[in-house]
Predict the 3D structure of the following.
Amino acid sequence: MTLLELRGITLDYPDDVRVLDAVDLDLDEGELMVVSGPTGVGKSSLLGVVTGLVPRFSGGTLRGDVRLDGESIVVLPPRERAHAIGYVGQDPAAGFVTDTAEDELAYGMEQLGLPPATMRRRVEETLDLLGVADLRRRDLHTLSGGEQQRIAIGSVLTMHPRLLVLDEPTSALDPTAAEDVLATLTRLVHDLGVSVLLAEHRLERVVPFADRMALLTGGGRVETGDPADLLARSPVVPPLVELGRAAGWTPLPLSVREARRAARRLTLAPPPADPPAPAPAPLLTATGVGVTHGPVVALREVDVTLDAGRVTALMGRNGSGKSTLLWTLQGTRKRRTGRVEVGRPGADGRDPAALDPAGRRALVGLLPQTAGDLLYLETVAQECEAGGAGTRALLERLVPGIDDDAHPRDLSEGQRLALALALVLAARPRVVLLDEPTRGLDYTAKAALARILRELAVDGHAVLVATHDVEFVATAADDVVVLAEGEVVSAGPTRRVVLESPAFAPQVTKVLGPPWLRVDEVVAAL
Amino acid sequence: MRTLPRDLHPVAWWLWAIGLATATSLTTNPLVLLLLVGVVGVVVTLRRTDHPWARSFRFYVWLGVAAVVLRVLWRVLLGGGYPGTVVLDLPEVPLPDWVLGISLLGPVTREALLAGLYDGLRLAAIVICVGAANSLANPKRLLRSLPPALYELGTALVVAVTVLPQFTQSIRRVRAAQALRAGETGRVRRLRRFLVPVLEDTFERSLALAAGMDTRGYGRSGDAGRVERRVTGGLMIAGLCGVVVGVYALLDQTAPRLLAAPMLLLGVLVAAAGLLNAGRRVGRTRYRPDRWRAPELAVVGVGLAVAVVGWWVNRHQVPIAYPDVTVAPEVSLAALAAAMLGLLAVVVTPPPSSVAPAPREPARAQRPERPEREVEAAR
């Protein structure tokens, strides 16, 4: 039976921006629905309408009706919906109210005024259900991203909501932690009959679990239907679906397992040999780099070489030292041991740690994790002017056609990233480091980023990009370095590293086996 | 009394510490003060938990030491002209006329130093008592035990305490990020360069937190009717007015006496009634609330006893409470008892429940094994 009904939902933001246009949506009990679409198309707004956060926290005018079990709840504020609708945001740490996991699980129930005995029982049940019983007394801010996300889910589950609304719950997680969280969600749907409404643009992860899909196609329209049907027509699709479409498989396989069965009938030409690796032209050489954070060793004897003309991906689970390595190579983070040389080693190699900020900028450019930290002015033109000569031209090359008068905060994720990157590149560094630039980007923006990185490499830059996104690595990187616990556990050409670590394998490799890596290779061999 | 380890109600520890602080504020006898500090130290060592805030005691001890040092230095700097035995003959710095009555430096007497030392010790002991309360009782749990009507206030304070470290983290991050790009270097402009992202970040974080709290039912209206809400509001406002008038009358000696203490009392009572009324309509419950049992009462009793005996010494044994700086200080049995009574807190309370920090997952599975080395070791 229908749990949630949206009827004629129309949402307008100021300046006549229509985000949702007469949207109708039904969600059945015990159903997992994925909300998908390009970034900035209104996924979060749609979820906000359901939880009541839109328009209360976002502004705008809302028309239409939201019904829960046939009763209109559109005028109720979020707090009065809390007993029935649980909401988990993108950054779980931002929503934590208490300081230990146990208190956090109990918080919502305290607000509902449940009897203490019930609270006690539900906390224990939920700790077990999510497999986080050993974290109960831990400080929430010392937990890893995946653990935090599971606590955040638990903290709404204790209220026994009928519907769970999650806004990109895995966007900040490494592949393994993301799979943990998604497996937890599937288990909830199967065991408890909770309905789940989930926004996600990394479809490759969630589509196999989805019962139905709502696709936001822009212009405020929403299409709902079976994932396989919708994906057959969708402009942006996960690699698996792209492969299925290219190979003409019907029905379209949505999970790796289904695709593998379909792939048995596939005959492929032998894959083209990789072009021989060019003669190494190291631009940055780091040997034996060690960094400590208090008594904790953050990096231990890390050796990294970045060659001109190559894109290297830096992978590893959350907290494995990726960001620390980037900041150390850039010179801001002080190292305890080891050497970092930018330029030809021995000849004109210079250590960025020995220079002032301006000197470092000219040697090594670094795009930090929150690119917005770099921006502080009101318009794109002012930012470019402050960035120095040539910034505007660089931006035009990276992403053409950004309006001069636009406010940096109003740009799309991809455009803002490009602006920050242009500011970093304005000092003309030959080595470029990027810290998780793919976070929050949709397929189109990621493809654009991959193209930008390739162009930088062709220009003779050495590029190192830290990321969790295995599909992005498969398409964009020549080499991969995998960190664990501050040590390099594998390094080398993408194809070889991916072969060694199944956890980092892209979908195409999972389906067809090595050496296949990208859809375009397979398409060429069909 | 054998009881299982558990954490005491935070309010109990605060009342105990306030009792000790009261006793310390009523004497300058260095022997009694040092004894009190020692007692506090022993109780803190034996009864504090292993949570992070419990380690703050050391910080308060250093604060106390700083208080003593500053107090003595102050005496040296400004204490010229104190009669007594000169130990250090410093030249006096003449000051202009408009700072009449103050002299810089000048001969330092032993009495001046001792007076500074005693005074500083008293201040230090009070600071250390507060520090003891802070490290024995989780401040966040203390806020959680506010009456239900003040719940919103308590939550706001808890959030503020939690958010502060995040704010410093955000400042550090933006600072590092801004060094990665070119931009204005002027003084004011640079400040803006740095403030805008930090403020934006803080603002976004606050909104996310508010949204998170709202979706989890924070501030749900109870089932109170309109009349009831008005009654509560009326009681609170009337109570506050009563308190204000009472305090004014207490301080202004010309006001009618009827308006002083009685009015203050009435105001407090009415406000308390308002709080109670507001608390009744709150449809909120508490998860594993701290319970008030015999050991809590005993600890509060100990604090009270220390304060009462301290007050008695202050009233009836003035030379003991405020020893002369010209002779060696002495102690009386009562003064000793006042200090040592504090130790009883250890006897009447159960040990704190220890938190075994869960070991982080070893997660070393990905590290390449080195079998050849193991083989060598086996040989």
Summary: The radius of gyration of chain A is 24 Å. Chain A touches chain B through 78 residues (CB under 8 Å).
